[in-house]
Design a protein that fits this description.
Elements lengths: L1 H21 L9 H9 L3 E2 L2 E2 L13 H4 L33 E4 L5 E5 L2 E5 L32 E5 L10 H7 L3 E7 L3 H6 L7 E4 L4 E4 L2 E6 L19 E6 L3 E5 L8 H9 L2 E7 L16 H9 L1 E7 L13 H10 L14 E2 L16
Parallel strand pairs: 5-6, 6-7, 7-8, 12-13, 13-14
Antiparallel strand pairs: 1-2, 3-4, 3-15, 4-5, 9-10, 10-11, 11-12
Length: about 375
């Protein structure tokens, strides 16, 4: 019996190692110049990236709380979400000085800025996991989106390599429809394994900038972590993005992040901002250091020195135990009179962040 158990464990370990190394969904490990840059980064130690202050992925496990993850109830919508139709011919090329944004749920956003189209963290798959049979499916929409619904994209920016932000099937479909990619250190190796040439990929460390056709992209710190496999946590960098086009627009895409000292640093170095898209969803007390609670966004709002904000990282997937409408409702309640400057446009709507009143739609309250 002991021999059988040992053999079973060894075979399982070998099978797991083979899957992790051979299946492309898990990506690849950096080599060459990228690996050298990682070793020289001030934001890593012994090949593991770290935040600006000590950070725990989990601050404690409470089985009574975690059991709520497996209930449905109000954590999943009981009807299709009222979304807006998106088709390629809906998108004319805008003058460089104009700005439009389309939110596809979660953290997938299309920025039309500086005459270019920039897509962030594209995930159009049904499930945010390495395999389609793992995890809860995407919320049903009145319009369900695909890569084919998008207009021509100039650039993709990625915040980190977790499955709900770096989606293998979506990238495979997009790779021949997009010109360039800008990503945090180490993430380029995944893209190269998936068939994207290295000369189309720009990797950045925190506070590094690149100019894309007059659009300044700054890779900024975020309080989170990374990894696609069982043994490579912290091996690639994670980040948020500051997107600036001259004196016309200055946007902050906060990506996945707990509250931390980086918000003040970003505000001091790169603000003031016209508009910020801040993570507000998939949080819990057990992992609050890597996913901010809604009330903490008010402090980030002040420190970023930003006029208006929009909650993202909700409205698409169930990755935590809260109700699906709780993120925006908690944020609005905490904001008090400031809620007038919180935008909540329909998913799929092409909007201007400067048209505040037209985009305070609170659509999830409608039956």
């Amino acid at each position: 019996m002991l021999y059988f158990l040992i053999v079973t464990v060894v075979l399982f370990a070998l099978a797991t190692a083979l899957v992790l190394n051979l299946h492309p969904v898990f990506g690849a490990t950096s080599s060459g110049d990228s690996r050298t840059r990682i070793s020289q980064s001030p934001n890593q130690a012994k090949g593991r990236f770290h935040y600006l202050e000590p950070t725990k992925v989990s601050t404690g496990f409470d089985p009574t709380k975690f059991s709520a993850f497996f209930r449905k109830g109000d954590t999943i919508p009981d009807r299709p979400l009222p979304t807006r139709e998106v088709k390629p011919d809906h998108y004319d090329r805008l003058p460089a000085e104009e700005l439009r944004i389309t939110w596809f749920g979660h953290s997938t956003l299309l920025f039309e800025i500086g005459g270019k189209r920039i897509l962030s963290d594209p995930i159009f798959s049904a499930v945010p996991s390495p395999f389609s049979f793992l995890g809860q499916p995407r919320f049903e929409n009145t319009h369900n989106y695909s890569v084919e619904d998008l207009p021509e994209i100039d650039l993709i920016i990625l915040s980190h390599d977790h499955y709900d932000h770096l989606d293998y099937p979506s990238i495979r479909k997009l790779k021949d429809r997009v010109q360039d990619f800008v990503v945090p250190l180490g993430v380029g190796a995944h893209l190269e394994r998936w068939g994207i040439a290295a000369n189309r990929i720009t990797e950045l460390d925190w506070w590094e900038q690149t100019d894309y056709a007059g659009i300044q992209l700054t890779c900024t710190p975020a309080r989170h972590f990374s990894g696609r496999g069982l043994f490579n946590r912290y091996s690639t960098l994670w980040c948020a993005w500051a997107i600036r086009f001259g004196d016309y627009h200055n946007i902050f895409h906060g990506a996945d992040s707990g509250y931390g000292i980086h918000f003040r640093q970003v505000g001091e170095k790169l603000g003031p901002f016209d508009f910020a898209l801040l993570e507000c969803g998939q949080y819990n007390d057990m992992w609050h250091q890597i996913h901010a609670m809604p009330e903490e966004l008010l402090q980030a709002w002040d420190e970023l020195n930003v006029r208006t904000i929009m909650p993202i990282h909700w409205g698409a997937f169930k990755l935590a135990m809260h109700s699906w409408t709780e993120p925006p409702e908690r944020l609005l309640a905490a904001a008090g009179r400031r809620e007038e400057r919180i935008l909540t446009p329909y998913i799929g709507k092409r909007f201007s962040p400067y048209e505040v009143e037209e985009n305070r739609e609170r659509w999830w309250r409608f039956g």
